[in-house]
Amino acid sequence: MQAQLNLIDGEACAAASGRTLEVLDPSDGQVFASLPRSDARDVDAAVAAARRAFHGPWGRATATERGRVLSRLAALILEHHEDLARLECRDTGKPIQQARADITACARYFEYYGGAADKLHGEQIPYAAGSTVIALRVPHGVTGHIIPWNYPAQIFGRSVGGALAAGNACVVKPAEDACLTPLRIAALALQAGLPAGALNIVCGLGIEAGAALAAHPDLNHISFTGSAATGTAVAQAAAVNHLPVTLELGGKSPQLLFADADLDQALPVVVNAIVQNAGQTCAAGSRVLIERSIHAEVMERLAARFAALRTGPGAQGLDCGPLINARQLGRVRAMVDAGLADGLKVAARATLEADAPAGGFYFPPLLLDQVPPAHAIAQQELFGPVLAAFTFDGEDEAVALANGTPYGLTAAVWTRDGGRQLRCAHGIEAGQVFVNNYGAGGGIELPFGGMKHSGYGREKAFEGLRGFTTLKTIAISHG
Ligand code: NAD
User: Fold this and answer.
1) Long-range pairs, 98-105, Cβ under 8 A, ≥24
2) Binding-site residues, ligand 1, Cβ < 6 A
3) Which residues are catalytic?
4) What is the pTM of this model?
């Protein structure tokens, strides 16, 4: 595959430095493309182009016109669905069926926000006699979007879709490990009629291009999705310029299994919630909390499912693909090895397919039982297919255990008792609580975001669109 280029002001261009980064296929560890290694100069050019577009044709477009462009983009993504899915599969290593689902979701974001663009409006506020007050809902201006490698197409769609629909011009810094689908979709956006400069993509390292974007003085908003540590750095950099920031960070999401749960319904979902994308999902269900009376049965059934999971190259479409890179594999291995050295009990371990390439970054799914709630594996995000099981007695202990980590992104409660469903849902500190179902992050239509160290602000849904606007109040005294 040829060298990839940035997209700035509607033009494909190399990094100002002329430097590049290698792109590896996580399924075999081989280099198959290169990316521009951009720095502050490229970010400056992209922000300036976005500013011109915001004051130019894109800023002048009506909401209906903006919506039409996004709807055309959604249709183009669907037209190129299989090519995009294969690209996402190769770039991230995720199983092809997951990549296909991600591209469908990406198209759906543009479809949703395309349709929503001209339904977003401000309000009129009752005020003093002889006056009219209106609160206009206006775009921030130039928005920066820093996205991670785990769901590049989906997160690109959810963040940029909302920002463009609201009338902002965007500068995107995708993760150095996964830039290919954002670049390809941005090219399709031009084809859909998006004016040059309204959407710019700058590839590069987080500490170079990412840090330059977060600290840029001519931005008006930053949407960051990634780890809690980087979120802190981005929010600190943005604070210098008093920029509003949305932080979509990590999680340690619990699945609460009560004795009256429908286990036939719950267990496949519990397994999928941690194995999906090899556990590299912010909303991965990485903890299963089991009521004591069903603990033995649940562990036996989960162990059988884990042992049967197949791990191999993304293109083979098995249950689990590789992790994104050698660093992530090393991190997961080190955390698990430390846990095993502490005496954590392995309940089941899946195996790697015999023909999986030796250079791939594979970590077959692992099920651990009776993990002490204070242990690092119970508290920290591993970002790998490792499920930690716990036992509880009664509702209060279940909710306390669920809330006993620094995170608060998503959770699921499995019980047939209607009162308990609602009591637990109210008691759990998380941005989304699912009852008798679980979708990592849920659908496009559901507001998504964290509590506690999982971040603040919401993306997805109509709420996400509002987040890409601010209010301007106009007070008129007319007698
Ligand atoms: P990361 O924080 O390392 O990187 C995210 C992005 O930030 C990348 O584009 C990276 O290049 C950039 N970056 C790194 N250092 C930077 C800096 N100093 N300044 C500015 N930008 C910088 O995260 P990751 O490893 O790519 O992704 C995994 C993390 O993302 C996990 O913690 C996961 O839970 C989280 N995540 C959250 C959500 C959500 O919606 N809540 C969704 C997906 C992933």
Assistant:
1) 98/276, 98/277, 98/321, 99/314, 102/151, 102/153, 102/154, 103/77, 103/153, 103/181, 104/78, 105/153, 105/154, 105/157, 105/444
2) 146-151, 173, 175-176, 206-207, 210-211, 214, 225-227, 230, 233-234, 248-251, 282, 381, 383, 409, 455
3) 248, 282
4) 0.97
